[in-house]
Amino acid sequence: MTASTVSVEYVTQxxxxxxxxxxxxxxxxxxxxxCGPCRVxxxxxxxxxxxxxxxxxxxxxxxxxxRDCATQLQIRSLPTVLMFKAGQxxxxxxxxxxxxxxDKALQQHL
Length: 110
What we know:
Layout: E1 9-10, H1 13-22, E2 25-31, H2 36-51, E3 57-62, H3 67-72, E4 80-85, E5 88-94, H4 99-107
Parallel strand pairs: 1-3, 2-3
Antiparallel strand pairs: 2-4, 4-5
């Protein structure tokens, strides 16, 4: 399975709040169009989504479009990847990292 088979979609704050409450395991990639390291992380999130398509939902949040959401979740650096399980934050990864770190963090919560 290739990463190109799964597209990680941008969500709005309203969608995000609903997803946090209703999704068993949610990965959120907080990003911005002007953020270079975010462009490095983006294909890794697509790969994570593709490899775990039946077990996790992966979404992107553009902080320039949804500043309230970034403030609410205390996003202070980009990229930031949050993992929520059953409505609770269980992981926070800040900055560009090797794919294995994102995958290892996710596997701990599956």
